[in-house]
Amino acid sequence: MSANGKIDIYAADSISVHSEQDLNFKADRHINLEAGENVNIKSGNRISVESTTNFQLKAGADGLITCVGSMNIASAEHRETAAAIHMNSGGAVAATAGSTPSITRVPGPGSGPEKENKNPLDENYSSRHIVNVIA
């Protein structure tokens, strides 16, 4: 930790964090996530995203939203722009759950090839992995 409270964490391999309760992140400025490959988010219940101003999604290739039930869009004004718009027509490509990538990693103690989410109380977890930080 630097004198002004900055903390940098680096690992040549994976870093895993596990909580049996909540895991909370808060920043008074920005939270930035970047991956060299995929960003996967999975919830056992609901995912909620909220912004007090604009919300933007951008895909460098195709975009796909799949809903098992209904999809509802509410806005003050709805605009669609495309070279061609196909809705329930022969040119429309069916959006199916099978055509979207799914998250194959199931979080849990010692799961996955990296044996992430290690529990320090597990007999196979060496105490040399535990770092105590005292402020």
Provide structural commentary:
It is a single chain. With 135 residues, the protein is mostly loops. It has a domain at 109-135. Helices cover 0% and strands 0% of the residues. 0% of the residues are buried.
Describe the structure in brief:
It has no helix or strand.
Give the total of beta strands.
Answer: 0
Radius of gyration: 21 Å
Query: If helices are DSSP runs of H or I spanning 4 or more residues, what is the number of helices?
Result: 0
Percentage of residues in DSSP E strands:
under 5%
- Tell me the distance between the termini: 9 Å
Give a quick account of the main beta sheet: strands, pairing sense, barrel closure. none
Flag low-confidence runs: 109-117
Summarize the amount of helix as a percent range: under 10%
Shape: elongated
Give me the secondary-structure category. little secondary structure
> Which whole number gives the mean pLDDT?
77
